[in-house]
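Students often ask why inverse folding is considered easier than folding. One informal answer: many sequences map to the same fold, so there is more than one right answer. In these notes we will look at a single instance of the problem. The structure comes first.
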């Protein structure tokens, strides 16, 4: 079973690339982020034509997450995180497919920091940790898949110096990510590539793709029951180099 997290950076602008990926790779489950579309603008007909069912949680111009499943419609469990009734951002969608629980996550960027956007990021991570703890208590296979907007380690970026002031690499962001792992989650890509130097994002600016100046911010965290089934993990990097591609590459885990 191949489970993918993919920040598409605009579902309407990138629908041809997404359908191309679904057709060529045939993943079983895909968690999408940054739809940048309201619910009624989601291109469900194109998704159906590719052979996938979907649940989505959109928002005008910003954010937005979705879960796709090959040949079936995911069963929605929860949208949004508890703990802040005023938070209307579409950043969390939790579904179940054939006994596997998956969550599509689009964690706040947090820039500029310090400031209210960074404060929101940290509070959102605390709310995610609460939900993650509850999911672990269910003792079922769970995959928390998404764009976490956190560079966990120095070897997860092309340049520590270039990113040192960014919200993605601040000690507070990293501390919360490590605390999440300490609950009992397995970082699938890190497990497969313990030496780092594996990127999932390359900025559109300054020739980042051409220079391979990227970093790792797309993560798939596995509950112990899912980690026991871990076979492989990787990045479908070539899709970042295609015409009108997202600035993220599809990142995946394969479970037994």
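Output (designed amino acids):
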């Amino acid at each position: 079973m191949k489970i993918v997290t993919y920040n598409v950076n605009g579902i309407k602008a990138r629908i041809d690339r997404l359908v191309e990926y679904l057709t060529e790779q045939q993943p079983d489950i895909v968690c999408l982020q940054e739809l940048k579309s309201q619910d009624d603008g989601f291109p469900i007909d194109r998704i159906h034509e590719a052979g996938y069912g979907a649940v989505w949680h959109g928002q005008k111009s910003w954010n937005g997450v979705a879960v796709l499943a090959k040949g079936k419609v995911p069963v929605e469990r929860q949208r949004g995180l508890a703990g802040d009734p005023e938070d209307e951002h579409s950043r969390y969608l939790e579904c179940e497919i054939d006994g596997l629980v998956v969550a599509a996550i689009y964690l706040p960027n947090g820039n500029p920091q310090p400031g209210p956007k960074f404060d929101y990021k940290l509070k959102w991570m605390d709310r995610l940790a609460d939900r993650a703890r509850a999911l672990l208590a269910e003792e079922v296979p769970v995959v928390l898949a998404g764009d976490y907007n956190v560079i966990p380690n120095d070897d997860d970026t092309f340049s520590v110096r270039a990113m040192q002031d960014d919200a993605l690499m601040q000690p507070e962001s990293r501390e919360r990510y490590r605390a999440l792992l300490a609950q009992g989650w397995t970082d699938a890509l890190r497990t497969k590539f313990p030496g780092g130097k594996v990127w999932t994002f390359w900025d559109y600016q300054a020739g980042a793709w051409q220079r391979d100046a990227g970093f790792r911010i797309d993560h798939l965290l596995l509950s112990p029951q899912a980690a026991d089934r871990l076979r492989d993990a990787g990045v479908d990097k070539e899709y970042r180099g295609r015409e009108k591609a997202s600035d993220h590459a599809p990142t995946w885990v394969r479970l037994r």
